[in-house]
Amino acid sequence: MANLVEIRDLRVAFDGVPVLHGIDLDVRPGEALGLVGESGCGKSVTWLAALGLLPSKAKVSGTVTLGETDLSGAPQAKLEKVRGGRIAMIFQDPSSALNPVLKVGRQLCEALRLHRGLTGNDARREALRLMDMVGIPDARGRFSLYPHEFSGGQCQRLMIAMALAGEPDLLIADEPTTALDATIQAQILDLLARLRAEMNMAIVFISHDLGAVAQVCERVCVMYAGRIVEQGAVGLLFERPRHPYTRGLFDAIPRLHGPRTPLVPIPGTVPDPRNLPKGCAFQPRCAHARGFCQSERPDLLAQKDGRKLACAFPLPEGSEEVEREVRREGMLQ
Amino acid sequence: MIRFVSLRLLRALVTILAVMTFAFVVLRMSGDPAEVLLGPDVPQNVIDAFRKQWGLDAPLWQQYLSYLGAIFSGDFGLSMRDRSPAIDLVMERIPATLQLTIPALLLKLGIGIPAGIYAALHRDSALDRGVIFLAILGFTIPSFVMGLVLVLIFAVTLGVLPSGGIGTWQHAILPAITISIGGIGILARFSRSAMIEVLGQPYIRTASAKGVKWRDVVRGHALPNAAVPIVTIVGFMVGSLIAGAVVVETIFSWPGIGRLLIVSVSNRDLAVVQCILLLIAAVMVVSNLVVDLLYGWLDPRLRAQPAH
Fold it and tell me: Residue A110 and residue B201: Cβ atoms within 8 Å?
């Protein structure tokens, strides 16, 4: 099946500092793709750049195609049709993502007017249906309320309703649950999974919450310092991560099942984009780094098991427990 | 909503009362009208008679109470100079002052706000820097300097506009511009920073992400939010419609409230000064009240929650 979105060699620089170093990414119709990585690794920037939503000081190169449409360098009018129409986006902090001085109904109707030409009572009826669909109780009574009169979780539901207004082929969910309580997070994730199935829409789920990614996504890309370092089916990556960074992400989250084991944080911090280490960007924090890693940067290469991997000395396949012990002892010494 | 309005009304009344009391006490502590009006070499019995006639011989609290009582029955007292009602003297000066301050206010709004918004939308461009530079220049140059410079250029050198006095509409041009320049600078800077602040908010990105045209994002999503801080400054400017021209009226010999205030203060014409201060306070308070109400209208988050 043809890809819905193809991103090729997408690069972004802010004030001459590159933050995205050539991203290749495909999104298939209807699939759920996770983008994972620490803050500042370029997950959100990738999609903001693809939709032309970065401030004008950002320098973007590369190509982004949506079906037959080339979005890279497209005129604003063309991008405006795509935004919210074919590709919709929801954001991290839903309470500040809605305009505080406009009634929520009006904000919903604006999207309906732009992308489906609905006005007046038709728009209102459809807006109410969308509010119902995303689980806003008493939509009719709350149509004329302002965003501050809704809870954070309900604001995110409203954002989702607004995103659905244009019946998009792809929904970019940029950390949609980060600012919400745990129970609300689970509800929002359920809602996204349900809507995706009902509307046959692809989802790109940007998150640093691996649990949430596992719940929603089929495929996952792990990003580090502006590059994709490992990519593959969720099951494959989560059970047998091979990039030491992917592995580090898993070791840093507590496990609910099995024996209690100490958490192993990834040492060090995300490198400053102005001052990236030579060779592999992860090498200073990597327990497996060797001389080669300090001078050469590994390419993202397809592996036999279907994943893509950018590591010269990946973790061996199928030796998870041994590896884990080795790392832990290394940490204790 | 009723609670919101009545609370603010009450606050407005208390403010006016405080200004009246302050003016009353300070005026009476700071100099004796009898000595100023009658001159230095007047015999004591004349001074005593004058004091008795104007009630200045009574204890301060008693004067204050009778002043308050008179105010509430609509009597603002008589001018000590020509015994005409103070309120009439003040009222006949108001149109002259408004002839300067209203055009000046329109200039401030019409130039300051668009310039600031334009600068914000073209941040860091040469035009943006130009606007900031002119704005700083505008509100750092004192109005008496600006007024004299304008007179020098347009009246003395070019000879196209009169240098002072009142008469034709041309007479109002230089003073009105002089009054407006500082306000234009302030409003430009304020609108710019308010707009920049708003443009950085997540809901602006949301609006763009849902496909709203940039022009409509600015008009429909950014401006209504930036209006709240801008209205504060505008309210302040409306409040100074009466009192904002004291210096400029003096430079341009414009017979408005400002000139009357200066003459009355130096003559210790108590009733007139009190009347002017009361008027200034009332206008300021009313415009603040309107701003408060506008806040609620502009930003639903500031509306007081109805009692549940």
Answer: no
| Numbered residues of chain A with Cβ closer than 8 Å to any chain B Cβ | 51, 53, 76, 80-85, 88-89, 91-93, 96-102, 110-111, 114-115, 146, 148, 159, 162-163, 165-166
- Chain A CB contacts of B300 under 8 Å are 100-101, 146, 148
Structural domain count of chain A: 2
Only one residue has tokens 């001159």, namely: B39
* Contact indicator for B239, B302 with CB cutoff of 8 Å: no
Which of B210, B215, B225, B301 to probe by mutation at the A interface, max A CB count within 10 Å? Answer: B210
Question: Does the beta-carbon distance from B211 to A82 stay under 8 Å?
Answer: yes
pTM, whole model, 2 decimals? 0.84
A168 and A252 belong to one structural domain: no
Q: Nearest C-alpha of chain A: how many angstroms from B209?
A: 5
A307 and A166, same structural domain? no
Distance from CA of A3 to the nearest CA of B (A): 22
What gap in Å lies between CA A146 and CA A144, rounded to an integer? 7
Range of the domain at A315: 242-332
Give B212's contacts in chain A (Cβ within 8 Å): 80, 84, 110, 114
**How many CB atoms are closer than 10 A to CB B20?**
19
Q: Are B154 and B214 in contact (CB under 8 A)?
A: no
- Residue B168 lies in domain: 86-302
Instruction: For B115-164, write each residue's pLDDT tens digit.
Output: 999 999 999 899 999 999 999 999 899 999 999 999 999 999 998 999 88
Are A38 and A105 part of one and the same domain?
A: yes
How far away is chain A from the Cα of B211, in angstroms, using its nearest Cα? 4
The pLDDT tens digits for A12-46 are 999 999 999 999 999 999 999 999 988 888 999 99
Yes or no, beta carbons of B298 and A163 under 8 Å apart: no
| Digit-coded pLDDT (tens) for A132-191 | 999 999 999 999 999 999 999 999 999 999 999 999 999 999 999 888 888 889 999 999
Determine the 3-state secondary structure of A63 from DSSP. Answer: strand
Q: Which residue, chain included where needed, has tokens 């759920």?
A: A32
CATH of residue B240's domain is 1.10.3720.10
Using a CB-CB distance cutoff of 8 angstroms, which residues of chain B are in contact with residue A166? 210-211
Instruction: Pull the structure tokens for residue A219.
Output: 């495929």
Name the nearest CA neighbour of A173 among B127, B209, B61, B47: B209
Contact assessment for residue A114 and residue A84, using Cβ atoms and an 8 Å cutoff: yes
Q: How many residues does chain A have?
A: 333
Q: What is the pLDDT of residues A262-311, one digit of tens each?
A: 788 888 888 888 888 888 999 989 888 888 899 888 999 999 888 999 99
Residue A17 Cα distances to A57, A58, A59, A273, A329, angstroms = 11, 9, 9, 7, 38
Q: Tokens for B42?
A: 């007047």
